[in-house]
Amino acid sequence: MQPMSNKTQYFTDSVIRRMTRIAIASNAINLAQGFPDFDPPKALLDRLAEVSYAGPHQYPITMGAPNFRRALAGKCKRFMGRDIDPENEIVVTIGSTEAMVDSIFALTNPGDKVVLFSPYFENYHAQVLFADCEPIYVPLVPPQFHFDPNVLEDAFRQHPKAIIICNPSNPSGKVFTEEELKLIAQLCVKYDVYAIMDEVYEHIVYAPHKHLYMCNMPGMWERTISCSSLSKTYSITGWRIGYAIAPKPIMDKIKQYHDFNTVGAPSPLMEAAVVGLEMPDSYYEEFSAHYAHMKQLFTDGLRNIGIPFTDPQGTYFVLADIGPYLKKGQTDVEFCEEMARKVGVAAVPGTSFFMEDVRNIVRLHFAKKDETLNEALDRLSHIREKMG
Question: What keywords does the record list, in alphabetical order (predicted)?
């Protein structure tokens, strides 16, 4: 037999998705994989019911349904403050995941270097390796997850092709400040580096923090790809509708990869999702208040239990310190598997996200109904006795 690809030797399957399977098998509350247990907005569900009969049901235009792209451009005008050309500067993808992959392949050649902040979403590491590129890691230092500008510039001095930034950041919950984004922008311009932004949590930000778009930083529109999706904003993670926004010269390359990679996003789901893109401002105000409530409920519960954690500025994740509960020699993966079975709560081991040797951190998420979070907190209150 011919040897198979050796690219996967540097990582395992997704530990996040693996923990979902363990949660199901253990009948544990899944605070590992980040999806809500409450319904999408009723307007989307009503429109989906109509579309299920009326269609469309056939292949879409590869770059995405025209009415969806126009609605998306309108939403971007509202929140990004920029006029986006729906014909030449948008492509609709299978989730933000595909948007990120298409962007990396469109910008890089084998052997190129790509800067990643650590901790990072596990997909980025794999995506960079799939493209035969070399990751350069820059640590974000807890609890505020600041970075050292000198360390970052040292990474840029290695002549990377791109930097990948999740803002707001999964798993740390960091929201990059205007000062930080401007500093990164200056380095991108100085060293001629592209910025690939993952902004799927753009509407999940907690006061006084504010999400700012990298493409609006000085000199950055020409070198920024803004990737996002509808998954988090409208609680439709299973619809897998994402998108990339970039200036036409970059977008032309992204579209080529998208065309041969997935052909197009689902026609009926794009049609139904237009309703979401046209939601009034009141929807986003209520959405933000809902997430602020869930965050308050969950973090107050962790404090009462005595589990140390980092307070997120955005997203719906917390990084919790499970050091006091680890057995000698136990890995964080083993701990999470045991916690799912014995405590009934599933988490993600921190080694999935850090390039540093971090073994006492797990990621938990709180995009759940109150009753789900209260039950999870009740189970976690017995963690010491059940994991002893």
Answer: Aminotransferase, Pyridoxal phosphate, Transferase
Largest CA distance in the chain: 60
- Backbone dihedral region for residue 271 (phi beyond 0: left; psi -120 to 50: alpha; all else: beta): alpha
Question: According to the model, what pLDDT value does residue 54 have?
Answer: 97
**Whether 381 contacts 305, CB under 8 Å:** yes
**Domains in the chain, start-ordered, CATH in brackets?**
15-40+282-387 (3.90.1150.10), 56-279 (3.40.640.10)
Question: Tokens for 184?
Answer: 């990164």
Q: Give strand ranges (E) for 38-112.
A: 90-94
Helix (H) or strand (E) holding 191: helix 178-191
Cα separation, 320 vs 304, in Å, equals 14
Q: What pLDDT is attached to residue 197?
A: 98
Amino acid letter at 54?
Answer: A
Backbone angles phi, psi at 163, to 5 degrees: -125, 135
pLDDT in tens, 13-35: 788 899 999 999 999 999 999 99
Tell me which amino acid residue 32 is.
A
Query: Is the model more confident about 189 or about 3?
Result: 189
Under DSSP, the state recorded for 169 is P
266 SS3 class: coil
Length of the chain, please? 388
State percent of the chain over pLDDT 70.
99
Residue with structure tokens 């921190």? Answer: 350
Q: Is the predicted pLDDT of residue 11 greater than 80, yes or no?
A: no
Residue 32: name the closest of 41, 50, 19, 44 by CA: 19
- pTM for the whole structure: 0.96
Determine how β-strand 309-310 pairs with β-strand 241-245.
Answer: unpaired
